[in-house]
Amino acid sequence: MGNIIFLILVLASFFGLSKLFTKAGLPAWKGLIPIYNFFELSKLLKKPWWWCLIMIIPGVNIFMFGVYGFNTARAFNKPSNNDLIFASILPYVYFLKLAFDDTAKFVGLDKFKNEPSKFVKNWLDPIVFAVIAASIIRGFFIEAFTIPTSSLEKSLMVGDFLFVNKFAYGPKIPQTPLSFPFAHNILPVANTKSYLEWIKLPYMRLPGFGSVKNNDIVVFNYPDGDTVALLQSNSSYYQLVRNAASSYKKANPTLTENQALANGWKYVNENGGNFGDIVSRPIDKRDHYVKRCVAIAGDNLEIKDGEIFINNNKMQMPLNAQHNYYVKAKSQFVDKRFLDNLDIYYDEAYRLGITKNEFGETLLGIIPVDMLNGQYYPYEDLDYEKYKGTFGGDTVLYYLNMTKATYDKVKTDPNVYSVEIANTKKGVYKNSIFPHNKSYPWNNDNFGPLLIPKKGLTLPIDTHNICLYEKILSTYDNGIHSITKQGASVLYDGKPITNYTFKQDYYFMMGDNRHNSADSRSWGFVPYDHIVGSPFFVWFSMKYSEKNPISGASVIKSLTKNSHDGKFRWERFLCYVDDGTLHSIKIPFIAIALALWGLSKWNDKRKLKVKPNT
């Protein structure tokens, strides 16, 4: 309905514009032809002809319509504040109003006696066009991002400020054009959504420089973020429901899986105090994630004991890949300074102990490494059976997240008995792992085999494998559809299907931080229409105190410290990104900046020399 109303308003404005052209001595038909009408209006207002090209760009054209409205009001001798505000905010209606206003006479902007205030001339106009230019660049070329999570540590690190190239795979046309400038989905101060869904455009993408390939680092809209619990927006809404369902099932084993899941949905949706409002988001307003694409459309993927196999070929582990390790030590030697020296994030390092969960099950629990006494937090991913006899005397068991290089350092420490990778065994089912079905007992370290859907590929569909592709059929591929099971049949909008042909390509994304990454192992496939771009330049990088409590604590003191001891990672400033590896361009950047400064000074002196005497 919003699209229809918007179309009616635009057509009404074109009709009004045709009447205004007549008042200005132009043929009325010129006001009815899209884009050409704004080309003629630009000439009439004596503004740059290329303004009309901005009217092609969704989202930005809404701002530009207001710019045209503001100048048209003045050109037709309507300089009052009420008219200018009306023309800027609702130009569609204002053009029509002005067309039937007998007092509106075309005087042009040159002959306009009441010049705009200095604020409008010196501040408002430049600001509006700066916003328009920045919106075009941000929407279609380059956008600034910050790495918020450690999913790609140590390739792209928490605190990296980078630019993303949207032409890498082709920029997407905004599907939700009514949006506040420079805000993605939340207005920071008001903490409300930054967009309106009154107008919705279909998915379209401009040509790009290439296609997504294996091992590319890719920025994309988070697929599982189509629904969000606002008070826990960093967690998957669907996993919150599954966790609640699991608790219901354990508390009452007689419940069926469907009954437990229904209780989970109800609990999350009705418990606003814990979860907040439940909102849905369009594709282009879902949170941005950045991961490594390990499998592309058409690939067969399998993970065996933490190693990835694509089409039965073992992939090389990324240079800076991290894993969790059990570190068995003879004394409590791990503290904040130890972690800081090895650049192990404080919130990814724990001390282990035996505890019980809410259902009385004995398992391993975790607390921060520097907490000598306290309540262990149950952590079901840890292997209790393997390590239940570890504790006693001066023996301490830690759970540390490390690269291979850090692992090599820790295992040679005289205080360490052993270091062993914390892989989960094959066949151990985790409800947090896709496809969240006990028929597929997969986990982070043993996953698949799984065929990644490809556009045009037809696969058989049955009640066993529908859980793998249900979200594609119901949500991603061709709009919203109902997928249900009835006996031995799968129903697609109430009709039985036995196969399905995919409408677009899909990808499987993973983080280099293998045991601390919410990725495709948790929520499945990434559709092609969710792909945003590729990170290509890190211009600034800093540590956060919650992850590096010592070296990341002080800004002022860090100005004179190196990257290891201080907050700023100087070696990551001004670097371009190639497959997760950073290459510094500081020297060329500084040289070019100095050259441009010198050229500017030389040009100023040259102008002074040739300036005639008066």
Helical segment count: 16
Distance, first to last CA: 67 Å
Question: Could you give a short account of the major beta sheet?
Answer: 9 strands, antiparallel
Give the fraction of residues assigned to helices. 25-40%
Structure description:
The termini are far apart. α4 runs parallel beside α6 and α8 (237-251) crosses α9. It is globular and about 95 Å long. The chain has 614 residues and is of the alpha+beta class. Strands 1, 2, 5, 8, 24, 25, 26, 27 and 28 form a nine-stranded antiparallel sheet that branches. It has a six-stranded antiparallel sheet with strand order 15-14-13-16-12-17. Strands 11-10-9-18 form a four-stranded antiparallel sheet, with no helix packed on it. Among the domains are: 2-140, no CATH class; 322-421, no CATH class; 464-503, no CATH class.
Question: Quick recap of the structure?
Answer:
This protein is 30% helix and 21% strand.
Q: Which features would summarize this protein structure in a list?
A:
alpha+beta; about 625 residues; six-stranded antiparallel β-sheet; 16 helices; nine-stranded antiparallel β-sheet; globular; single chain
Describe the protein's topology.
Layout: H1 2-23, H2 36-45, H3 51-54, H4 60-75, H5 81-89, H6 91-99, H7 118-140, E1 142-146, E2 160-165, E3 186-187, E4 192-193, E5 217-221, E6 227-229, H8 237-251, H9 257-270, H10 272-275, E7 278-280, E8 288-295, E9 300-304, E10 307-310, E11 313-314, E12 322-329, H11 336-341, E13 349-356, E14 362-368, E15 377-378, H12 384-387, E16 396-403, H13 404-410, E17 416-421, E18 447-451, E19 458-460, H14 466-476, E20 483-486, E21 489-492, E22 495-497, E23 499-501, E24 506-510, H15 520-523, E25 526-527, E26 531-541, E27 575-578, E28 581-584, H16 586-610
Antiparallel strand pairs: 1-2, 2-26, 3-4, 5-8, 5-26, 6-7, 8-24, 9-10, 9-18, 10-11, 12-16, 12-17, 13-14, 13-16, 14-15, 19-23, 20-21, 21-22, 24-25, 26-27, 27-28
